[in-house]
Specification:
Length: about 375
């Protein structure tokens, strides 16, 4: 077991990170709001603490790396629960603010006798939270802000009681040989795009994956594209709309910060980065355009493609392309869904948009898309 905390190392977040191309305003996420609030509180001299979920067990409202900032006046932004832990969190935060020392605390709601705990929630889960003072919280916030604008990276949070608030930052091209297996775990987490808690040589760490937000690319700027883009933006996606009809690509029709790309369907791969963080929705309502969009997507690493229309239409698109020698392997075909969306009985542009985005969220998190009442019932740790 390592007997000392990690030595402070230079920030390995991409120093040349810039906001996503073509976007003057990006979607404001919960983390963006928390970081901005912490900066404002510091500027105004408001004492505060930052709570981060660093462990979960059973059924919990929030997952790993969820955050909530709490001021000395009990103002807060963000949430680590549905509100059921707020009173207890504020008490812990007040102690951290007063002492200036981080604290690791577990809120356990798995007890059968709720009177023991006094919460009366019945969530049947436990949430472990790191609550730290403003000094280390602001350092973390600064680095998270830089990392989120650049390449995907990882933050390794030590959960050793003697080293709380100590962190290391790892990028795919960076190295931290002193961490050994922990670096390997961080690299694996970055590849998968999922946070994880690991225990190595008896010491636990939270590996938090950060980086540029997922990209939602909507191919087709018709009237039904607007709700998809609007809700995608609210969910924190970097939103891009492309179409060869310039008159449809207007800032009045789409949320602020949406990148509007005027290009032919056959130019898609040259004007948009079709990488593994890109989720594509084909909604041009034109067979030949969608044929070209799929041709451009062939060979790419996009995480998801959702095509409007029945299964037979997508099968025909595949057949026509394969007849031209453009063959889609099984792995890429698995990522292409048609009709797009989960089956929630959606009708009309708004409901269809939610159906599509629900499927995208399920793909991004590796979830089944089944009802929570079903999946939680069969989870072995609940």
């Amino acid at each position: 077991m390592r007997s000392t905390c990690w030595l402070e190392t230079p920030n390995t977040a991409d120093p040349d990170a810039q906001p996503p191309r073509g976007r003057n305003l990006i979607a404001v996420t919960e983390l963006d709001t928390i970081l901005e609030t912490m900066i404002d509180w510091e500027r105004r001299g408001v004492p505060f603490a930052l709570a981060t979920v660093v462990g979960v067990r059973g059924s919990t409202y929030r997952g790993l790396a969820a955050r909530q900032a709490v001021s000395d006046q009990s103002a807060s932004v963000g949430t680590i629960s549905g509100g059921c832990l707020d009173n207890d969190l504020h008490q812990v935060a007040a102690h951290v603010i007063e002492t200036g020392r981080p604290q690791l605390v577990e809120f356990d709601l798995t007890a059968d006798d709720e009177a023991i705990w006094g919460w009366g929630i019945g969530c049947n889960g436990a949430t472990e939270v790191l609550v730290e003072p403003s000094t280390t919280a602001l350092e973390l916030g600064e680095r998270l802000g830089v990392s989120r604008a650049g390449r995907r990276s990882a933050v390794i949070h030590s959960l050793d009681p003697d080293c709380l608030g100590t962190r290391r930052f790892v990028t795919p091209s960076g190295d931290a040989p002193v961490l050994g297996q922990l670096t390997e775990e961080a690299e694996a987490a970055m590849r998968e795009g999922r946070h994880r808690v690991v225990e190595i040589e008896g010491e636990r760490s939270l590996i938090e994956v950060v980086g540029s937000p997922s990209r939602l690319l909507v191919c087709g700027a018709g009237h039904d594209a607007n709700p998809v883009v609007r809700y995608g933006s609210e969910l924190g996606f970097e939103t891009i709309v492309t179409d060869d009809r310039r008159n449809l690509l207007t800032t009045e029709r789409f949320p602020e910060g949406t990148e509007l790309v005027h290009a032919e369907a056959g130019e898609l791969a040259s004007v948009v980065n079709l990488d593994e963080r890109t989720y594509v929705v084909l909604m041009s309502h034109n067979y030949l355009r969608d044929l070209e969009y799929l041709r451009q997507i062939h060979g790419s690493r996009v995480a998801y493609v959702g095509a409007l229309g029945p299964n037979e239409r997508l099968d025909r698109l595949f057949d026509d392309l394969e007849g031209e020698g453009v063959v889609f392997d099984a792995e890429l075909k698995r990522r292409i869904r048609g009709p797009a969306g989960l089956d929630i009985g959606a009708e009309g542009p708004v409901e269809i948009a939610w159906s599509i985005l629900a499927e995208i969220l399920a793909v991004r998190t590796g979830s089944s898309g089944e009802p929570v009442s079903v999946t939680r019932r069969h989870r072995p740790d609940d």
